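$ run holo --ligand "Phenylacetyl coenzyme A" --emit tokens
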Amino acid sequence: MIEQTVNIDDRLAEFEARIARGEKIEPGDWMPDEYRRQLIRMISQHAHSEVVGMLPEGAWIPHAPSLRRKMVLMAKVQDEAGHGQYLYHAAETLGATREEMLDALLTGKAKYASIFNYPTLTWADVAWIGWLVDGAAIKNQTMLAHASYGPYSRAMVRICAEETFHYKQGKEMIVHYATNGTPEQKAMVQDGLNRWWNPTLMMFGPHDSDSTNSEILMRWGIKTKSNDELRQEFINEEVPEVHALGLTIPDPDLHFDEESGNWIIGPIDWDEFWRVVKGNGPMNAERLAARRDAHENGRWVREAMTAYAEKVHNHV
Ligand code: FAQ
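-- output --
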């Protein structure tokens, strides 16, 4: 018994030394159960976010204002499906099955990014998702590209490249409407900012003091920056860009602090955040209903593929 404890301590020390040396942990390598559990939790939530994240923008594909805008949006939404695939695969390398992950999503047990439980009321919302939501996602995922788990970090490198295109197409639209748009388009852009700014800041997760997972994630090199650090970097980068377009950020307390060089925001409405995370946001029920429908409608494809695979297997 004592020998076994020493053995596990040795393995943990070696595991942590590998992370300290910047080595990647790969699927067959020894890892603490908690490392595996944290990664499955985070990667599966991330995969669900990509897939549920197709819905708010997907709703606008039939209403895109031009063929060019429609093609760009279709490519973007398809990319998000691909990101979901990479991420479900990364979680599978840790022993999670696709069935149990999807079951957790469809029964409402799994979390996914709060931001996708808000409605897309106008075309400008599609543009703001590109700029703000993809912008926030890139900030977080650029950090995760350095995560200690190999399959997750490699998926992030690929995803970030595609998200950069998503960010640019959103920003290009906002710049266009805010500078060359009609008065209606300018008003639509400001209205979208009024609704998307605060929920975007919530994407980074609770303040560090309330972030239950950060300590262990940072100890094991999964996260290398805290929720508040990333949120502040995002704010510092985006506020001047939004101001340059003459738009108003919906935060009366927002001001620049010369000493720290930071843009300081007012309080975030964490009651709203937890309401949304717990399933009571404006669109939670609708998002899950859409995913359940898609899952049911795809049942025949899964059955046909399983039957085909069995036939090939039996033949061999
Ligand atoms: N929404 O202890 P922490 C995208 C939960 S991808 C919902 O601080 P952690 C692409 C958290 O799970 C966007 N729940 O958690 C796209 C935990 O609960 P648990 C998704 C949230 O893990 C763009 C509890 O609160 N990106 O947008 C949220 O250390 C456009 C306590 O929180 C990722 O998933 C939230 N915002 O830090 C697609 C990146 N925040 O699980 C379509 C990977 C926190 O203990 C269109 N994930 N919670 O029951 C991460 O980096 C981290 O998981 C954080 C949260 C930073 C999200």
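-- notes --
Residues 92 and 98 are 7 Å apart (CA to CA).
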